Amino acid sequence: MRVYLDNAATTSIDSEVLKEMFYMMENQFGNPSSIHSHGREVRTAIEKARKTVANLLHASPAEIFFTSGGTEADNMAIRSGIADYGIKHAITARTEHHAVLHTFEALEKSGVIKLSYVDTDTRGNINMSHLNELLSSNERSFVSLMHANNELGTLTDIEAVGDLCEQYDALFHCDTVQTMGHYPHDLQRLKVHFITCAAHKLHGPKGAGFLYVNHAIKINPLILGGSQERNMRGGTENVYGIVGLAKALEIAYRDMAGHQEHVQGLKSYMKERLEKEIKDVQFNGETDPGKSLYTVLNVSFPEMEMADMLLFSLDIAGISASGGSACSSGSNIGSHVLEAIGANPGRPAVRFSFSKFNTLEEIDYTIEKLKGLCAS
User: Which keywords are on file for this protein (predicted)?
Assistant: First the structure.
């Protein structure tokens, strides 16, 4: 049996999404910047996709800018927001994705900003009192805090963060890559200036994403070279990826309630079985359904010989999982997120992440293999 439990890294493309993309590939190939009929057809498809995304998020189409994915969107929000508003102080957490952390670190190293890190507890929760302190004791800040941690699954109350940012006139960027399509986002109500999306996290194609920029914010492009995306991103649009992204998000919203029930059921079932079958198993991050992303379960296993071979052994058994952030998979560098929350480095950690395509039979198979590995 082959079992894929690394959906926080990437997901398989939904067949409905593929159908939509294939139709475009076979029938509409014009350059969307061309004024002839072939170009106009493709431009219409892009704008239809933009409208679909905007309507689902309760945003305006003019606030949606298509990108190559979440990393570019994060960079665009952070770099352009800080540069165009002359911001000298930024706040983030050490548990953020490297797309955010490395961008801030580069800006700090070049002397553009002073960077502060808000405290987190041992489960990855943001210390809101400390965030308030950082905002009140510094000049206007740029705040970047993710909705759900990609390794732990711990959710942040982004409504509360948005309220604090509004109180101190801070710009708020939220990496919503892991929660887009899994939770509804009402951008008319949420006090946020930037959010990001990567299509491949919600059964869409790789290489496509978007940045939402609140209408009250005006920024300059990160990538120059053309007038695409209303002069906000140079380069011919990834038409097939954009169409696939919109379809994937449409499906996600259409089926959200049923998929959440199914996936949360898989996560809860696996957690209960692990607690029953493996002595001294623990969990990193929040696991309460109200505080944790239902697609992610980070498991801390007892110290064992050859702990560094656990993921490899799972792979040999046909089970794909991750030891941390997908962007660090395959490296020998430990998880910066687990280090930030003070996790025991002697205990091997595995992130299992689920999708609508996983089954209870796959969970049972994985548990049996884990029992054998932990007993050896």
Answer: Iron, Iron-sulfur, Metal-binding, Pyridoxal phosphate, Transferase
